[in-house]
Design a protein that fits this description.
disordered N terminus, 2 helices
Length: 191
């Protein structure tokens, strides 16, 4: 009887060990990044926002953030700057710390992004405060709002990478393709 109890205990422990080992394999591919208590599966936005206060050098960007602190970022490749660096413009910066220096990985000039953009099937205006106004009456899938989130442009309900932002053109890309837009002759002034 004693041997049967030992044998059953051994089988139970072995089954428990095998079961835990299989769970560890299936849970391994599901990383969860906690950003806040209400939405535990949302990745935290690491974008730094501010106004460009000095753009005299090609490889450094100075911005003043909402707290009034002046931050400087080294720019290794000007191709990572979308919309230019103009003093006074609102900027969104994605950076990493490399060897003790803040290095800009992507810089988006928010003021250059704002305005009216058109394509064959879209006609919308990006306004201050996350507002989008659609100007096409027969549009089936309109953008409802916008924001910069971890270096991507969210034109709700879609998310895009900015490939190019110039004075009169915008190129966006997502999993469905590349989209080109032309700026309308509307001067936009934000607060």
């Amino acid at each position: 009887m004693k041997h049967i109890l030992y044998l059953l205990s051994f089988v139970f422990v072995a089954a428990l060990f095998v079961g835990c080992k299989d769970d560890a394999k299936t849970n391994k591919a599901k990383p969860i990044i906690v950003s806040n208590e209400d939405q535990p599966n949302i990745v935290e936005d690491t974008t730094i926002y501010g106004r460009c206060c000095e753009a005299t050098t090609m490889n450094v960007l100075y911005i003043v953030d909402a707290k009034g602190d002046t931050l400087n970022f080294i720019i290794q490749d000007e191709a990572d700057v979308f919309g230019g660096k103009l003093v006074g413009d609102k900027m969104a910066v994605i950076s990493e710390n490399e060897y003790g220096e803040d290095v800009a990985k992507k810089v988006i000039n928010i003021m250059s992004l704002m305005g009216r953009w058109t394509s064959l099937d879209k006609d919308f205006e990006i306004k201050d405060g996350g507002v989008i106004e659609s100007h096409q009456k027969a549009e089936t899938k309109t953008f409802t709002s916008w924001k910069i989130y971890n270096g991507q442009l969210i034109l709700a309900p879609d998310t895009f990478d900015i490939n190019m932002l110039g004075p009169d053109s915008l190129k966006l890309e997502n999993k469905n393709g590349i989209y080109g837009f032309k700026r309308m002759d509307v001067k936009y002034k934000a607060n």
